[in-house]
SGNH hydrolase-type esterase domain-containing protein (Aquimarina algiphila), 103 residues
Amino acid sequence: MEIDVILITPPPLALDAANAHGRIASSEEDVYSWKNPYERYDEEVIQKFKDIILETNHPAVIKKIDIHTPLLQQADKAYDKDPIHPNANGYRIIADTIFKFLL
């Protein structure tokens, strides 16, 4: 049985966009949570996951889809106060990006 695998990068942590939309941060600065994420999480963790996914070479992997880059490029439209979960426009960007790769 052959399996075709499609890898998709994680979305970014869009702190700048969320801050511009009036993100509500936690009052506990030393406690990290979805309300108070580590500020360098995107560059120190998510970017590395993205790179690993895009550099993965395996015969079962037929496509690698980067949703991180288009979401980050359009973060002001793709995110509201929540820096983790995209808004409706963000999910549209994800869908459009995946659709282009699957054609």
User: Anything to note?
Assistant: The CA atoms of residues 33 and 87 lie 19 Å apart. The first strand starts at residue 5 and ends at 8. The chain has a mean pLDDT of 89. The chain has one domain: 5-102.
